[in-house]
Amino acid sequence: MSRRMRNLHVEDKISGKGLGNEAFFVAQAKHLLPNGTHNGGLSMTPAKLGIIGGSGVYDLPGIENLHELTIHSPWGEPSDVLRAGTIGSIEVVFVPRHGRGHRYSPSDINYRANIDAMKRAGVTDLVSLSACGSFKEELPPGTFVLVDQYVDRTHKRESSFFGQGCVAHVSMAHPVGPRLVERIAMAAEAENITTVKGGTYVCMEGPQFSSLAESLSYKAAGYSVIGMTAMPEAKLAREAEITYATVAMVTDFDCWHEGHDAVDVQSVLQVMHGNTEKARRLVARLARDFSIMREECPVGSHKALEFAVMTAPAMRDPTLVAKLDAVAGRVLDVG
């Protein structure tokens, strides 16, 4: 195990006793963030793959040195302890989005803590596995859709790390990393997993499924799939300069399709079982073939904060800036 991975056992390596919260999180960031993060250099940054999805994805073919990471975030606690291991030359970090045992509804997930914890763990590229309904006949249950756009219909979730005291605006015009998507597509092809590149994911608040009127309106708008978890996850990953992609795993036709029953938990779980097995193979292949060093993102996700911060340095709230040590330390010069 590398020195950096050993250091991720935060409770053993760094103690918060005797430190104020701000000092503790600045010290933690210095200890955990990979080489090159603060100066923006990609050439010195090893790639590390993050996976957010169900707990069943942990059991990957070929994974070694699987262990738990206890990482504390100033944004609250992540959904669960993170787990990490190695596949080939790549370190892979996992977090179950809903917590083990599915304890959190989509509205109750602490998305900021999850993304912040991934950043503190050194994750450079993040793959989100998300169960979705389909609005298209050509995207039947069992299909994996590599979406390239999102429509955010959520309204109860904290959607930014920034705010009063440190304002920033990042571009979401192209929210996924094209190279990451291409690598996922190549891994799926190698594993004979049916995937479709491109499409729009509409993220609803939930936890209820769509009404018929909603489903028909989303279909008429031309959206591809519907889910409950990609937002604000994708926005927060962009703010954290983590390259992001969603694998939308189709489980049903929502409720618009006259030839299929309305979506229910039992039918979703049946399809999800098969999707999980495919997702494990997909992630394992992706990791085995992944670049050892972080690649520059064609849409700039690796430097999304370069000119995003608007608040003048003298006017920035020091408490908020301290919480941004991992997410935005590269541009805020924290520590």
Structure, described:
The relative contact order is 0.19. The protein is 29% helix and 19% strand. It has a single domain, classed as Rossmann fold, CATH 3.40.50.1580. The protein has 10 helices and 11 strands. Strands 1, 2, 3, 4, 5, 6, 7, 8, 9, 10 and 11 form an 11-stranded mixed sheet that branches. Helix 6 links the parallel strand 9 and strand 10. The N terminus is likely disordered. The protein has 335 residues and is of the alpha/beta class.
Brief digest:
The chain has 335 residues and is an alpha/beta fold. It has 10 helices and 11 strands. It has one domain: 3-Layer(aba) Sandwich (Rossmann fold).
Write the layout of secondary structure elements.
Elements: H1 3-6, H2 10-13, H3 21-32, E1 48-53, E2 64-69, E3 82-87, E4 90-96, H4 111-120, E5 125-134, E6 144-146, E7 149-152, H5 178-190, E8 195-197, E9 200-203, H6 212-220, E10 225-227, H7 233-239, E11 243-252, H8 265-288, H9 318-323, H10 325-332
Tell the overall outline. globular
Total helical segments? 10
**Between the first and last Cα atoms, what is the distance in angstroms?**
27 Å
Q: What is the arithmetic mean of pLDDT? A: 86
Number of domains: 1
Main structural class: alpha/beta
Low-confidence stretches: 1-41
CATH architecture: 3-Layer(aba) Sandwich
Strand tally is 11
User: What string, H for helix and E for strand, traces the elements in order?
Assistant: HHHEEEEHEEEHEEHEHEHHH
**Helix fraction by DSSP (H/I, runs of at least 4):** 25-40%
Largest sheet descriptor: 11 strands, mixed
Q: So what's the CATH class?
A: Alpha Beta
